Amino acid sequence: MHELAFLSAVELLEGFRQKAFSPVEVTRACLGQIDRDAPSLNAFVHVDADAALASARASEARWHRGAPAGALDGVPVTIKDLILTRGVPTRRGSKTIDPNGPWDLDAPVTARLREAHSVILGKTSTPEMGWKAVTDSPLTGVARNPWNPAMTPGGSSGGAGIAAATGMGALHVGTDGGGSIRIPASFCGIFGLKPSFGRVPAWPLSPTGTVAHLGPMTRTVADAALMLNTISRPDTRDWHSLPYDPRDYLAGLDDGIAGARIAWSPALGRFDVEADVADVVARAVRVFTELGAAVEQVDPALPDVHAIFRTHWWIGCYNAVRALPAEKRALLDPRLASVVDEGSRITVDEYLNAIAARGSLGAAMREFHTRYDFLITPTVAVSPFTAGHLAPESMGDVGSDWTRWASFSYPFNLTQQPAATVPCGVTPSGLPVGLQIVGAMHDDRGVLRAARAFERAQPWHGSYVRRTA
């Protein structure tokens, strides 16, 4: 049963076809992992075992008839608790939201997963309103890293990262407004993809606006491609969404990257990286040369992306709570309240300047990708640090500014490009390190293909299973 929980979604679907095991057995295995690890790691906000098992029994009956009804029929999934899910409160990690609802609507990504007849296990934990890159909140407390519970899993999709790493489902929905898929994926040793903005329809639009993406968090690249086939399907409620691309993201996934032009940037020209992280990623980059790609060390000429992003994000946080009455605001995470206050004081001129600077950055990266197919960097400048803290202790007091250590992720939220993280090794203390692959706008397929090539050359999935079996 333990092993069933760690099979990939691709393997699960094949097992269902062969009648080697059933969706009920798999769901029970995942619920067993949740019972074992979720309380101590704080991965979930809500688990509905009865509903999940009922869904699994219906799927089992369809498979026994040889008539599966959807592309993910019987595959266990989780939804981040920023995303509307019919019949379940979406608390957003906040005491300011009434759990009594009504909760009668699915967001597009939830609707697509239901239509594919996946088994929804529950909702994963997030910091309040998803405002920071670690996962703790006034509502649910502190989430912990499965590799070392004293450390943070990252955020804001920290619950999803924990769930993927520990076999609490095969497929997991994350959101990423400044690294919130890639940071916890890196810290938890899994794969995460932030697709091109608009690839996965979103509704309602995030309060942080057009920097926020939705995407898959999985243990394998192929599972992310499989999941993207479903969650990228269209929804008219999102007027930002891209035209639907009906091609199969699994097609050509194993074609390799021979001849690809890769820019390797160990620091993006301006950021400090922990020595242990830098060493692991630098060794991993050599794999791309061995795979036949042309790798050149080069730094894009980035402006002060910290200032640009901070303006957009701080205003977004203000937007998320600006309608709350004073008695509700008093319930906020104090550091979020500080960000909200700062965001309220950003002037129109400052915001317009940040919008213009963002446009210039996006144009510069589009020009950059006329010369390079992919940009490779560390995913995060630091390794996982103490849980319950906003930043590594070595950085001192950063106030509320988590962006000081997450500097490799949010530039590509500003530019809206696809970016993935793939596990590439561990630090001397045994904590996972991620390698980031950034592609040209709309080249989600290329990013998946490059990540899959690396994964095949330097296999990783299963490492956590061996540690905990």
Characterise the protein shown here.
- The protein is 38% helix and 14% strand.
- The protein is α/β, with parallel strands linked by helices.
- It has one domain (2-468): Amidase signature (AS) enzymes, CATH 3.90.1300.10.
- The strands form 2 sheets. Strands 1-3-2-6-8-7-12-13-11-9-10 form an 11-stranded mixed beta sheet, with helices on both faces. Strands 4-5 form a two-stranded antiparallel ribbon.
- Helix 3 runs antiparallel to helix 4, helix 6 runs parallel beside helix 7 and helix 10 (305-321) packs across helix 12.
- The protein starts with a helix and ends with a helix.
- The model has no long low-confidence stretch (mean pLDDT 96).
**SSE order:** HHHEHEHEEEHEHEEHEHEHHHHEHEEHH
CATH H-tier superfamily:
Amidase signature (AS) domain
> Which architecture would the CATH scheme give at its second level?
Alpha-Beta Complex
Instruction: Provide the spatial order of strands within the biggest beta sheet.
Output: 1-3-2-6-8-7-12-13-11-9-10
State the helicity in percent bands.
25-40%
